[in-house]
Structure to design on (547 residues):
């Protein structure tokens, strides 16, 4: 029998009930102790904070900041640092004189030529935005910034990437009309706001049925269970396997058929998924569209597409089902800016949410009209996206809603950087980096790498049960189940090798699986992690043979 860990099996069983992100603290503590004893450096592949940054958009931000500071001094200056408010008159001319070739100049010219923005107004938005000297107006998103971020989302989320054609992915094109955007404090804020607003506006009620595409980021599992929501959940499981019996984590048609049940009011999905890091295949996307349009046309869809940029030719459900879909996008991972807290909610101007608000019972309409009466003379006409903004500040503080203007400026510069990269050089560098790390980890494991065009490779989900049965037989896996808890693997890695991984079961994935973040360590570290994991798994095999 394997030597028992310091953490008892009974404690492991209790710890399994924690979110993986809370459990990681126990693992980090174990790994820290192990690194002291064994002189190993701790490898924390638990949380997916990228170890890269996009520099040109940051350079442009500080370049703009330097100009803005001089404009503030131009308006008023004192020895104690008290400056004024930038003056709009002649601002565009002074800005053009200041600009030099680079991203900031491209942004300036794009706003003027592509969107016909008034020069002085556009210059003032940029300058006051980076200074943060005014409240965000409009509260939903600054007008010029919204235009560029909108174009970025259409480019990246709706199959507008030229590389997509080379990889043979289905293209849908841009739906007619525009998306309304709400800039928010990262994807997590978007999640909280959306759950609240759907309930506040009677589109989801306590006890309603929703569906979750699993495995999935743990907050989506936990939020519906909160008392204030009390939602009943149907799991749409990514349980498909390929011809060799390997998990693809795609949704079989039989699972997607569940969404045809009109009792299910909403479907929440992360695409590409977390923790499995694969996008919905074009075939499954097409089938999902068919199910929704033919059987459940008022299904509300919330898709979290933060990892979409890591798959060539990615197409979001916001393109396939624009009327049904609320898209949440975060800039944090692609541009290495988790500390900036930059996210956006996108909703097509023609959508089922506004339709369903119009169809609510009069009593509910009256309740909502009273709630929003201080915002508009016609509260019944208030669009869902604007209700979302108001609800984010408990309505009464709607006038101070909105993401801080410096954050919006940086968001727009990130978007523009990608939008103007016509060769896709930055995207290719990000994708190549993750795919290299993925291969190195599997080489360390000494397992074959299955090709998968839908793989984002931001994370890697390793199904230990599948490995155990395929390589050593069903009896071996039954022995593992009888003698150990599923989290035993991550505890053993932490204690013996100072490696921190998360348990896949906490994401509603296979109980006997682990999630590895491929974003936050150096390439050689993933070879080490693969070898360490292989060593731990072989310890189980040896113990089984010698039992």
């Amino acid at each position: 029998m394997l030597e028992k860990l310091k953490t008892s099996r009974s404690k492991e069983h209790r710890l399994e009930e924690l979110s993986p992100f809370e459990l990681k603290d126990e693992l980090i503590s174990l790994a820290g102790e192990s690194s002291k004893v064994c002189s190993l450096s701790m490898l924390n592949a638990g949380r997916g904070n990228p170890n890269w940054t996009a520099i040109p958009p940051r350079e442009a931000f500080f370049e703009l900041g330097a100009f803005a500071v001089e404009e503030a001094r131009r308006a008023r200056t004192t020895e104690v640092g008290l400056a004024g408010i930038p003056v709009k008159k002649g601002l565009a001319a002074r800005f053009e004189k200041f600009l030099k070739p680079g991203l900031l100049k491209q942004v300036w010219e794009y706003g003027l030529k592509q969107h016909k923005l008034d020069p002085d107004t556009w210059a003032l938005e940029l300058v006051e935005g980076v200074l943060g000297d005014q409240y965000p107006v409009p509260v939903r998103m600054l007008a010029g910034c919204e235009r560029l971020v909108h174009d970025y989302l259409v480019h990246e989320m709706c199959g507008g990437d030229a590389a997509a054609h080379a990889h043979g992915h289905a293209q849908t094109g841009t739906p007619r009309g525009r998306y309304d955007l709400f800039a928010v404090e990262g994807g997590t804020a978007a999640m909280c706001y959306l759950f609240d607003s759907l309930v506040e506006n009677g589109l989801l009620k306590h006890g309603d049925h929703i569906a979750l595409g699993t495995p999935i980021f743990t907050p989506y599992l936990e939020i519906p269970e909160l008392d204030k929501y009390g939602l009943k959940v149907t799991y749409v499981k990514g349980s498909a396997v390929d011809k060799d019996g390997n998990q693809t984590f795609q949704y079989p048609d039989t699972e997607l058929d569940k969404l045809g049940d009109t009792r299910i009011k909403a479907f929440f999905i992360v695409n590409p998924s977390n923790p499995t890091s694969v996008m919905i295949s074009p075939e499954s996307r097409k089938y999902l569209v068919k199910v929704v349009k033919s059987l459940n046309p008022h299904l509300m869809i919330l898709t979290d597409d933060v990892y979409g940029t890591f798959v060539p030719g990615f197409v979001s459900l916001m393109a396939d089902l624009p009327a049904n879909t609320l898209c949440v996008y975060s800039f944090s991972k692609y541009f290495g800016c988790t500390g900036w807290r930059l996210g956006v909610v996108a909703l097509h101007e023609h959508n089922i949410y506004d339709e369903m608000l119009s169809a609510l019972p009069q009593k509910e309409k009256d309740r909502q009209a009273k709630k929003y009466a201080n915002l508009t003379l016609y509260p019944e006409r208030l669009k869902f996206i604007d209700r979302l903004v108001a609800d984010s500040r408990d309505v009464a503080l709607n006038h101070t809603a909105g993401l801080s203007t410096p954050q919006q400026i940086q968001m727009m510069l990130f978007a523009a950087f990608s939008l103007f990269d016509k060769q896709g050089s930055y995207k290719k560098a990000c994708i190549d980096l993750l795919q290299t790390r993925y291969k190195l980890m599997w080489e360390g494991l000494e397992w074959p790498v299955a090709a998968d065009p839908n793989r984002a490779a931001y994370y890697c989900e390793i199904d230990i049960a599948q490995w155990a049965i395929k390589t050593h037989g069903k009896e071996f896996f039954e022995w593992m189940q009888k003698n150990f808890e599923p989290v035993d693997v991550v505890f053993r890695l932490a204690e013996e090798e100072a490696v921190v991984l998360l348990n896949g079961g906490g994401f509603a994935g296979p109980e006997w699986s682990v999630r590895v973040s491929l974003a936050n360590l150096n390439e050689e570290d993933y070879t080490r992690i693969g070898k360490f994991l292989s060593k731990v798994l072989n310890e189980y095999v040896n113990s089984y043979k010698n039992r």
